[in-house]
């Protein structure tokens, strides 16, 4: 269908103007856009629609026929204690990790900006950025061994201070915290670089003017840096929130959602329902909920920050 | 005022040095653990430094595991994905920026809209589609769904719109076809954007874990991140083996990063890609 529309439209455009050249252009558009749109169709548009439809079925890939169950999957998930718990864990994880990430990255970015020596500045930026390029799956494994009860680094450090060792990944009090620490280590590089670019774009004269007016360091930060950085902050916040909602490898590798589902985020629950339990219909309903949450959170953030800008 | 600044600068630098050291600890841990002998690990309290340094871990990885195959799988899929994604993004961006056809706005909005969709939302149907195509457990299942990027199309369109139409018209009058125009004039002009997109596409393809986890089962077919995790499952007792594999996989990535880090950072600030 898409080929037909592309073609007919360009035919019309071609007839109105110089024929030969526009026939070439039209052929070009048709020949190259079709495969691209086809790929988008099969691997982006179709799955979205299919996912919505699938969420109304009870579907197991082993038995080929799905059974239509209407909104039963949606009703079920709001009474499913594991799902409700995973929603709570997801929000807790995203909230704590995003806030910590923003505070830490902004502080480090401002600190690095203060460094005058060029190579030292580059060195710091590289060191903080390094973890972001390593595969998260590998990082998660390295951190699992650091959190190990018997020979892990963290318990070695505690031992130095004569503190009893901790079951970092299997104690319900510490499991989520451990994953949060690892995630922060693995991911702060991006936002540091983005904040540094944002800080660079603030003209020096604003600071100079404020200093002439007798502003101290806190005033400068509160009334010059923060407001002029708000665009960067909005962008960084939205991308970080979206990416932390989707955090998956660290949970699947380090804790598998245990102990007592304390680290079972929604992304992991969707994967487990779909590919471990073969409940693809139910998992699709969860995925739809997931999509709605992300869209709502993003829209709220944008709306909230727009009202912030107005005054 | 001036003296206070010196003090503050020194404090800030020292704190950054401390923070940087903390950031590097996991790498040190990984490398040191890879040299630990089985004796160290079995005795239970192996300590930070390896007591009996040995290369057993590396030997096991290189002998017992199809290490070369994993690297090759990752390299082949990532290179193909990157090359094709750059091509399709630049092309679709050019068409959307400089050509007219019916439904242009709607197609573009649809493509933009997919940027908002988390992968978890489409992974189940995408798996069913690859199953229907009969390519599950095949490297093409990794490649095929990743040959287009909505973000790439969006970026390319933004950058190509900046190119003056007169330039394109002049080239057309000289008899250049659309494809030649694309390769000879547009591609060089958007090269910075393309290299940024290329770096991030390659990195995402190389590091991708969730999608290979869904569609690949054979040890021989696995890509690097997946293989590492699989290996972790089979060698959980001798973690020196797993750490050796992690070192062998991480070091090349770090070297590549150190060589291209300028482009990396520039690309990140230009595109904001994650």
From TrEMBL, chain A:
<feature type="transmembrane region" description="Helical">
    <location>
        <begin position="174"/>
        <end position="199"/>
    </location>
</feature>
<keyword id="KW-0812">Transmembrane</keyword>
<keyword id="KW-0813">Transport</keyword>
<dbReference type="InterPro" id="IPR035906">
    <property type="entry name" value="MetI-like_sf"/>
</dbReference>
<comment type="similarity">
    <text>Belongs to the binding-protein-dependent transport system permease family.</text>
</comment>
<feature type="transmembrane region" description="Helical">
    <location>
        <begin position="280"/>
        <end position="300"/>
    </location>
</feature>
<feature type="domain" description="ABC transmembrane type-1">
    <location>
        <begin position="87"/>
        <end position="301"/>
    </location>
</feature>
<keyword id="KW-1133">Transmembrane helix</keyword>
<feature type="transmembrane region" description="Helical">
    <location>
        <begin position="87"/>
        <end position="111"/>
    </location>
</feature>
<keyword id="KW-0472">Membrane</keyword>
<dbReference type="GO" id="GO:0055085">
    <property type="term" value="P:transmembrane transport"/>
</dbReference>
<keyword id="KW-1003">Cell membrane</keyword>
<protein>
    <submittedName>
        <fullName>Sugar ABC transporter permease</fullName>
    </submittedName>
</protein>
<dbReference type="GO" id="GO:0005886">
    <property type="term" value="C:plasma membrane"/>
</dbReference>
<feature type="transmembrane region" description="Helical">
    <location>
        <begin position="220"/>
        <end position="245"/>
    </location>
</feature>
<feature type="transmembrane region" description="Helical">
    <location>
        <begin position="123"/>
        <end position="146"/>
    </location>
</feature>
<feature type="transmembrane region" description="Helical">
    <location>
        <begin position="28"/>
        <end position="53"/>
    </location>
</feature>
<dbReference type="InterPro" id="IPR000515">
    <property type="entry name" value="MetI-like"/>
</dbReference>
<dbReference type="InterPro" id="IPR051393">
    <property type="entry name" value="ABC_transporter_permease"/>
</dbReference>
<dbReference type="Pfam" id="PF00528">
    <property type="entry name" value="BPD_transp_1"/>
</dbReference>
From TrEMBL, chain B:
<feature type="transmembrane region" description="Helical">
    <location>
        <begin position="106"/>
        <end position="129"/>
    </location>
</feature>
<dbReference type="InterPro" id="IPR000515">
    <property type="entry name" value="MetI-like"/>
</dbReference>
<protein>
    <submittedName>
        <fullName>Sugar ABC transporter permease</fullName>
    </submittedName>
</protein>
<dbReference type="Pfam" id="PF00528">
    <property type="entry name" value="BPD_transp_1"/>
</dbReference>
<dbReference type="GO" id="GO:0005886">
    <property type="term" value="C:plasma membrane"/>
</dbReference>
<feature type="transmembrane region" description="Helical">
    <location>
        <begin position="141"/>
        <end position="160"/>
    </location>
</feature>
<feature type="transmembrane region" description="Helical">
    <location>
        <begin position="181"/>
        <end position="203"/>
    </location>
</feature>
<keyword id="KW-0472">Membrane</keyword>
<keyword id="KW-0813">Transport</keyword>
<feature type="transmembrane region" description="Helical">
    <location>
        <begin position="236"/>
        <end position="260"/>
    </location>
</feature>
<feature type="domain" description="ABC transmembrane type-1">
    <location>
        <begin position="71"/>
        <end position="260"/>
    </location>
</feature>
<keyword id="KW-0812">Transmembrane</keyword>
<dbReference type="GO" id="GO:0055085">
    <property type="term" value="P:transmembrane transport"/>
</dbReference>
<keyword id="KW-1003">Cell membrane</keyword>
<keyword id="KW-1133">Transmembrane helix</keyword>
<feature type="transmembrane region" description="Helical">
    <location>
        <begin position="12"/>
        <end position="32"/>
    </location>
</feature>
<dbReference type="InterPro" id="IPR035906">
    <property type="entry name" value="MetI-like_sf"/>
</dbReference>
<feature type="transmembrane region" description="Helical">
    <location>
        <begin position="70"/>
        <end position="94"/>
    </location>
</feature>
<comment type="similarity">
    <text>Belongs to the binding-protein-dependent transport system permease family.</text>
</comment>
